[in-house]
Design brief:
This protein is of the alpha/beta class and 629 residues long. The protein has two domains: 228 residues, Vaccinia Virus protein VP39 (Rossmann fold); 242 residues, TIM Barrel. It is 32% helix and 26% strand. The chain has 23 helices and 32 strands. It has a ten-stranded mixed β-sheet with strand order 13-12-17-26-27-28-30-29-32-31. Strand 12 and strand 13 form a beta hairpin.
Amino acid sequence: MIAAPATPAVFDEWAPVYDDAHNPFCALEVRLLRQLLPSLREKTILDAGCGTGRHFPLLSKLQAKWIHAVDYSAQMLELAKQRLPENATIHQADCTAVPICAQSIDVVLCSLVLGYVSDLPAFCNEMRRLLRPGGQIILADIHPDTAQRRGWNRSFHQHGEEITIGWNRIGLEDLRAIFAAEGFHCVCDLEPGFSEAERGIFVQQDRASAFEELMEEPVMYLLQLAREDLKQELAISGARCALSAYDALPRTLTVERGRVRSILCSSPEPQPQISLDGYLLLPGLINAHDHLEFGLFPRLGDGTYADAQEWAATIQVRYAEAIALHRSVQREARIQWGALRNLLCGVTSVCHHNPITGAMREPEFPVSVVEEMRWVHSAAFDFAGLQEEASIGSGEILIVHAAEGVSERAKQEIEILRALDLLQPSTILVHALAVTPQMITSLIEAGVGLIFCPSSNEFLFGTVPAAALIEDFENAALGSDSPLTACGDLLDEAAFVMARYDLPAARLYSLLMENPATMLRLTDGQGKIQIDGRADLIAVPDRGLSPAETLRHLTWQDVHFVMRNGVVQLVAEELVHILQPSELSAFTGIQVDGRRRWIRADLRPAFEAAAKLQQDGVLRLGERTVALA
């Protein structure tokens, strides 16, 4: 073993093999950074100690306006240049003296670097110089206490020799104090351990026993610091907070003006405060496809159709009376019922595949409705609309039903879109049931997104999308579709998918959280719990499982609390005590299959409008009975 100081020369030696090692620390850190890093749209970021540029793809995906990458190792930077995005500049320099103008950076990322910095006050002072007012710095490194206790070294192997690099093990309290002296306030402090996501790395390295030993220990720290005072209107305490599909830690969240302002072990106790002891706090779900005005409709059809055209033509005749009765309910009332169907299962954002109404834009509307998009029903029902979209050339996303069925004409819709040059990264196809293996390859190459509603497909056509699409297609999300064809709400759809496909729980989590947020270009932190992200949150009983495993087993009955944009929208009877008497007057109590929920809205007009749809004195929302409490 050769001991060496942390100099540019030793990192030059490390560079050729740096990316070869399957490092569980890097895997853990990247997974959490995907959740914690905000959208970088219109922001300039400094990757301080960028090394070989391993974070460049993530920073590009987050749409950084410009990336400054700095490292003092020439050989590391040579490798980084191979990954360098067009909107990036590389600087060979020490992180305590970066050749960039003052107040030119919005976010600093310093990943697995701080342990090598010999003069931490100088580093901190330099970051303060570079950051604009309101800027943030994210620090990630190996946990000093666990490293000290277990005698960890930082090393690499080259030419049969192990080279260990000297590093500081400064304690977290001392580290915070150094940054506090320069005016930085900690807004997020995480001390995560390894999870099932890293098990495979340890097994591959014949170190499975080491993984088991470390399961309960913090192995890294991630600190997010801001150059502004912490503001808060509300604290949510007592719950474990979901940080990713795999990770959840007990944390107190503070909320101000609809945004998450801190995620900390503890915080000053503002008034009011919401205590959620015994709960797991998850991001609000994102329903990538619904038709809100059909929320009260029953399922219509018998599962024998070749495509959507045949189904639509048939039900207009066979179920004409039922359709007319439901359409006689005022559309705004039907839309409110569609929103309630989503809210009850923890959905906070919905992509509505129909015209947006004024009510959907109101702050009081129960869910957020995606607006920054264009849509056409399908080639079958609105070919002229597709032709018009093909001539627009807009960069906004375009959502269209496609290949909804098993017929040849359903398959042909993919070719129609190709001929119109609409198979592009800005296009999202809904259903894609009739695609062939060859089409899958072309869709991947085109970069399109896919939204699946498998229970609707099975009900109408007796089959579901190919496993290769649900299990492996990267740009994919789930939608509930409408009660006209679907098995229930978005959580029912998730359960349907898990029963028919061999999906890891983490894949389901991505289909309902990060993927739809990315595909629908939601830039306010939807699908995550992150600093300055929207406070769209749901609370469910904590069973001690990972967030992904919790979601796998979740039903609407488990959703006891929903907050959208910092405002509580739903509480179960179990949590009604968190509402002040003055607040409770803004809520309506309802019974859903005998379980009481309190909803922030006056629902009496909606019930009155839907009274004509009662059967035997009972109103149904999907398969569930609903009544005023």
